[in-house]
Amino acid sequence: MSRLGSKERIRQFLLSNIGRVIESAEIQEAAGGAVQYSRRLRELREEEGWKILSHNDSAGLRPGQYRLIETPPEKLPPKFERGISARLRAEVLDRNGFTCQMCGLTPGEIDPVTNRPVRLHIGHIKDKSLGGKDELSNRRALCSSCNQGAKNITGEKATTIWLLSQIRRARQDEQRAVYRWLGKKFGPNDV
Fold first, then answer.
1. CA 73 to chain CA centroid, nearest Å
2. pTM for this structure?
3. Helix (H, G, I), strand (E, B) or coil at 110
């Protein structure tokens, strides 16, 4: 008796539900309770060309809802290497201060989108499909929520001058909120 992996279970489940809005709990159940079901969905989209929509792609879907809109292609697109060396991962996390470079959350904080503790991923600044390279200068730390929503739509990292200009333009209560956040992140003596 063969035992199917979570990705194959998700593949079969989606194929039997083409066009239907599916809740994340259904996908996790179909995957045998695997907690990494969102990674498997991303692999199907990015590596196998499946047209799986989420709330990031369609206004008609809420967070945690997905829809496979058509039968997947027979021929697989070229695969990108998924692995990242432990050394490169450590360099990116250290350079980025173990902080999501889009929303500023750090590991262990509660993500307001998912209400779960934050986990950091290493993402591309310029996506590989747009010519980005697998090198330190094109990598950044992202939380799960930002990593899933960032693909192909985010630009380069903000510069110090741009950030300061935005803070200077903000109201005083917003500037104080930034100051408090920096104090919390770095400690009051480092700000």
1. 24
2. 0.43
3. strand
Phi then psi for 122, rounded to 5 degrees?
A: -105, 115
For residues 19 and 40, state if they share a domain: yes
Range(s) of the domain holding residue 173: 158-191
66: left (phi over 0), alpha (psi -120 to 50) or beta: beta
DSSP H stretches of helix in the chain = 6-15, 24-30, 37-48, 86-95, 144-150, 160-169, 172-186
| 3 state SS of 3 | coil
Question: With 60 as the cut, is the pLDDT of residue 191 above it?
Answer: no
The helix/strand/coil state of 23 is: strand
What residues does 117 pair with on adjacent strands?
110
Whether residue 22 is contained in a domain is answered as yes
Q: Provide CB contacts within 8 A for 84, sequence distance 6+.
A: 122, 134, 139
Q: Note the pLDDT tens digit of each residue in 62-110.
A: 888 999 999 888 765 555 555 788 899 999 999 999 999 888 889 988 8
109-132 residue pLDDT tens: 888 878 888 889 998 888 776 778
Cα 12 from Cα 32, distance rounded (Å): 12
